[in-house]
């Protein structure tokens, strides 16, 4: 994040603190604008990164086997309220072109897609789209289970409610494959 962007966030946070009736100069709040600027640089770090680049592909012989990485934790920010939504992602793909991706890179890809203002549906399809772009697998399944703080700590206040979204592509986009994906996720 640029120095100018940091200064803008700090000034905006001071304005918000003042607007809610707080004193931004009281000791407990003096460093808050700078902390919030650092936090936004971290949780929105993907906004200025148009592509996911940090990955490696490896050759494989086993073309038809499903690769499933499940229960990948993530934290993102809802773009409507700038409050966190968080949970787990399950990612599966069927290799093609005799290539696979390093497993940790799938979790890094999830982080990359999460670190921007989001809605859960777009996060879900973005993970599938990125995987399609970098690996071009025969099939993809992505499921996201999340709790939204904007639905729990304010507004409708439905504590513990879960939202589940999914994207299916290619050979995994049919009823039989979806059922098999769900079965393996629940194992
Ligand atoms: N589809 C979708 N909706 C979301 C997501 N995160 C938050 N929302 C919803 O975005 C909507 C915004 O609705 P608005 O009526 O503009 O805002 P609001 O007055 O704060 O709405 P309430 O939350 O119902 O009080 C709400 O229904 C939220 O639950 C998300 O990831 N996906
Ligand atoms: Zn929200």
Largest sheet: 5 strands, mixed
Order of helices and strands: HHEEEEHEHEHEH
**Uncertain spans:** none
Q: Which small molecules are bound?
A: guanosine-5'-triphosphate, zinc ion
Number of domains: 2
Shape: elongated
What does this structure look like?
This protein is α+β, with helices and mostly antiparallel strands and 187 residues long. It folds into 2 domains: 3-43, Orthogonal Bundle (GTP Cyclohydrolase I, Chain A, domain 1), CATH 1.10.286; 57-186, 2-Layer Sandwich (GTP Cyclohydrolase I, domain 2). Helix content is 39%, strand content 26%. It has 6 helices and 7 strands; from the N terminus they run ααββββαβαβαβα. The chain has a 5-stranded mixed sheet, with helices on both faces. Strands 1-4 form a two-stranded antiparallel sheet. Strand 2 and strand 3 form a beta hairpin. The longest helix has 17 residues, at 3-19. The radius of gyration is 20 Å and the shape is elongated. The termini are far apart. The mean pLDDT is 96. It binds guanosine-5'-triphosphate and zinc ion (ZN). The site of guanosine-5'-triphosphate (GTP) has 10 residues, from helix 4 and helix 5.
């Amino acid at each position: 994040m640029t120095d100018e962007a940091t200064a803008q966030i700090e000034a905006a946070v001071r304005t918000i603190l003042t607007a809610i009736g707080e004193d931004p100069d009281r000791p407990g709040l003096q460093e808050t604008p700078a902390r919030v600027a650092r936090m936004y640089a971290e949780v929105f770090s993907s906004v200025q990164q148009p592509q996911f680049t940090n990955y490696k592909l490896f050759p494989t012989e086993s073309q038809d086997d499903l690769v499933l990485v499940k229960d990948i934790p993530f934290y993102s920010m809802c773009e409507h309220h700038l409050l966190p939504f968080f949970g787990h992602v399950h990612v599966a793909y069927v290799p093609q072109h005799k290539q696979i991706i390093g497993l940790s890179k799938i979790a890094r890809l999830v982080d990359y897609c999460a670190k921007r203002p989001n809605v859960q549906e777009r996060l879900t399809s973005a993970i599938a789209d990125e995987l399609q772009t970098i690996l071009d697998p025969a099939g993809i399944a992505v499921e996201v289970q999340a709790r939204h703080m904007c639905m729990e700590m304010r507004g409708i206040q439905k504590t513990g409610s879960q939202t589940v979204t999914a994207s299916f592509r290619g050979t995994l986009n049919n009823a039989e494959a979806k059922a098999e994906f769900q079965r393996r996720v629940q194992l």
